[in-house]
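Annotated sample (chain length 358).
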Amino acid sequence: MTKQTKKSIKVLCLGKLPQAQLDLLRSATNPAFDLEIIDRSGPLPSDQLARALASKDAVLTEPQDRINAETLALAPNLRFVGQRAVGFDNLDIQHFNDSTPHKILATNTPGVLDNATADLAFALLIAVARRVVEADTYVKTGQWSGFENDLLLGTEISSKTIGIIGLGRIGLAMARRAHGFGMRIIYMRSSSGRGNDDFAADQKDLMLKDELGAERVKLDRLLQESDFISLHCPYTPKTDKLLSTREFDLIKSSCILVNTARGRVIDEKAMVEALAAGKIHGLGLDVMEREPEVPQAFIDAPNVVLAPHIGSATHETRNAMAALAVRGMMEAFAGIMPQNAINAEIWAEWISQQEKLH
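Output written by the structure step:
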């Protein structure tokens, strides 16, 4: 778009934005942005979200914001969705691509949250293995009376096997942390999502073998051999309940499972049953199947460490995510295809439509 934009782009931001990004949007002139912010601690009810989007050209979302056909039916002007997360299972991308009278371009924030999320995953792993939360409670409630030889014995990490499900950017960051702790690394990565297909090692597998001594395996073998399992795969229809009753029957009873991916990758009912039956040693969970609902069994269990979906929650990372989302939106409406576009295949048609609208 080379000509001067005639009207402001109306933007809804769901959740807070850092001051630097607020200043950037409010000072922009070509195009200009008319920004409304709705701060909330949870997802807006669908009818309230639809009303808020009714006159908007763009929206900056977070994982709890579901933008689907039902929502879009009441938001006829929406043309851009900037997701402040790497996962985008809350966005109906297929509907965005098929939308009429105009397509909807979407972006996400890959790359900037890898280290923060891997840090939390490894923190959960250590917390469960060394019973850190139990120990904290033990001291703070006045139970500690002195040294005991068998007090709060935990599990060592060094030399143990970690199975990583999903070896994208975050999974790789997790693997590098595990390597630093002297762990044996096996992993599953699969375009099918189920993980038991035959595969031939590719260049990435060879790189991981050379750098980390990591071995790619099928899902069943990973479940059977791992002392620790960490999930880093995206949620898709193919990974829905990737781990369920059958898979928990394969896992070692001494295994610790960590999930910082998406709650729906695990069948939560099957996980509760496995925990109650002693089929798994402990859990470190940052995500739930129906957030913010948490099964009471997890709350009551001393061998479960919980976090409220804070994988990317560092000052540095959340600022970087906001900056990437805002930059992508500004680039798109200035006629530059964002490098973080999820559905870049519609760009030519999308930009042509913007020319007609302005």
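Annotation: Residues 1-5 have pLDDT under 50 and may be disordered.
Annotation: The chain has two domains: 9-112+314-357, 114-306.
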